[in-house]
Design goal:
The strands form 5 sheets. Strands 7-6-10-8-9 form a 5-stranded mixed β-sheet. It has a 5-stranded mixed β-sheet with strand order 12-11-15-13-14. It is built from 8 helices and 20 strands. By secondary structure, it is α+β, with helices and mostly antiparallel strands.
């Protein structure tokens, strides 16, 4: 009976291993080889002390209790690693202990993008797929208006430097594939010394030249760019300094007020290479739904400043119709409904603030 159970366990174990140790998509042509940071689970029959999760350290090895010395696994396939661990566990015995190895999490790999790029920093490489140079730049937000399109440097993990132009990167029939540890450096162009960049929700985004006086303030730069557009978040004007210091945030109304009331002393001066980004309101496309005894039932968009109260929402829907029971207005939010006396709100000049997705029903 023990022999049958043992064989049955091995069959189950082999099937279990074949499912969990599947290699990443895109790696069928060449078996995946283990690397530092990979995590896997070791299962040893009738040895719960050896059944555990393991990870490959920065030396390419794993440490297992009862085995003297770490086992080098870097560069091995999962099957080769399984055999190497089995031999180490056997410790010279004729029979290897029944065991299985299954991947839990693959190591993450990155390339690093810096310089005149919209989102500098690490870009993670997808598992089993080779990322190319153009894609990496796109993932990092694309090159900034201040970039020199003829001076994009690729430094490989081996220390080899290559210079690319933006035109060559985009037009190449065979894309330049990247490897973990590669660095992409986008150099500044000459306009970075004479201009600021206005980006996002403005009338006309692009570069604004600093006048010969050397003084260009935030309010003037925004006005030259046509001002914030109808979808702009007026409470979130971002100034990204050229020197890489922490961005600052301003309210558009405060920018104009200080420029008018305080004159030159109240203006925020810009420097060459600074970037001003006007963000889109997070309330674009969001709103509340009204039904019942209102003039116009249906969806009402949220104001872009994010402030909408119950009475204002009803007013936006054309107001109450003549059958409305103003004392019975039902507000539903997150599945919970509350009854509100709208007449009291109007008489006492109180507000019930709404949130996107709220449902308002006016009873008859």
């Amino acid at each position: 009976m023990k022999k049958i159970s043992y064989q049955f366990f091995l069959l189950l174990l082999l099937g279990f291993t074949s499912q969990l140790s599947a290699e990443p998509q895109g790696a069928k042509s060449e078996p995946y080889r283990l690397r530092d940071g990979d995590h896997f689970r070791l299962t040893v029959f009738q040895r719960p002390d050896l059944t555990k999760s393991l990870s490959i350290d920065q030396d390419g090895k794993v440490s297992i209790p009862t085995i003297q010395g770490a086992i080098p696994l870097r560069g091995l396939t999962l099957k080769e690693a399984e055999q190497k661990i089995r031999e180490s566990l056997a410790e010279g015995r004729a029979k290897f202990p029944p065991m299985a190895l299954a991947m839990l999490r693959y190591a993450r790999e990155f390339v690093h993008v810096s310089g005149e790029i919209h989102r500098p920093g690490p870009v993670e490489l997808p598992l089993g797929v080779r990322m190319d140079l153009e894609t990496a730049l796109a993932v990092a937000g694309g090159i900034s208006p201040f970039a020199d399109p003829d001076a994009i440097e690729l430094v490989t993990a081996d220390g080899v430097s290559e210079t690319w132009t933006w035109e060559k990167i985009r037009g190449a029939k065979e894309k330049r594939l990247l490897s973990a540890g590669d660095q992409i450096i986008v150099s500044k162009g000459p306009l970075a010394k004479t201009s600021v960049s206005i980006e996002g929700r403005v009338g006309k985004h692009g570069l604004v030249t600093i006048p010969k006086s050397g003084k260009l303030d935030l309010a003037t730069a925004l006005l030259l760019a046509g001002g914030p557009s109808s979808y702009a978040d007026l409470s979130r004007i971002e100034l990204i300094p050229a020197d890489g210091s922490k961005p600052s945030y301003f309210q558009y109304e405060a920018i104009l007020r200080e420029a008018i009331l305080k004159g030159d002393s109240g203006k925020t001066l810009l420097k060459p290479g600074d970037r001003v980004r006007v963000h889109e309101s997070r309330f674009v496309g969001l709103g509340v739904t009204l039904s019942g005894a209102v003039m116009n039932e249906g969806f009402q968009p949220f104001p872009l400043d994010g402030r909408l109260d119950l009475v204002a929402a009803i007013a936006r829907a054309g107001g109450f119709n003549r059958d409305a029971n103003k004392k019975k207005v039902f507000l539903t939010r997150d599945g919970k409904t509350a009854q509100i006396n709208a007449m009291e709100l109007i008489m006492e000049m109180r507000q019930v603030m709404l949130q996107p997705g709220d449902l308002i029903e006016v009873a008859k």
